[in-house]
């Protein structure tokens, strides 16, 4: 099994796990809200993936040092993931009128 296929399968399994874990929250949403959240999730994941793919290639071509390139790639990945999470939370919150983001039980 190739690495990208394995990563995709793990991502799909995690999405299914989260979907079943938060069944009550999904029941609060209308069909249009659920579709909007799913489209937003897929869109943000796609955009982040494209940026990571082409950004990684650009950085690899621009920087000659292996360690320096790795550090810059790692920092870029962290920034892209944080930006994707923040934007998804903001958009999903507007789509669902505050039902999503789900707060943890220990947070108030």
UniProtKB/TrEMBL annotation:
Keywords: Membrane, Transmembrane, Transmembrane helix. The chain crosses the membrane at residues 6-22, 34-55, 67-92. It comes from the Bacteria. This is Uncharacterized protein. It comes from Lentibacillus amyloliquefaciens.
């Amino acid at each position: 099994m190739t690495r990208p296929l394995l990563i995709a399968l793990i991502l799909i399994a995690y999405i299914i796990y989260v979907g079943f874990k938060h069944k009550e929250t999904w029941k609060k949403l209308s069909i249009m809200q659920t579709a909007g959240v799913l489209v937003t999730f897929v869109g943000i994941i796609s955009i982040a993936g494209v940026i990571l793919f082409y950004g990684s290639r650009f950085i690899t071509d621009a920087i000659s040092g292996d360690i320096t390139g790795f550090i810059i790639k790692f920092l870029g990945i962290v920034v892209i993931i944080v930006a994707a999470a923040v934007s998804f939370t903001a958009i999903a919150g507007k789509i669902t009128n505050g039902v999503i983001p789900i707060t943890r039980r220990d947070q108030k």
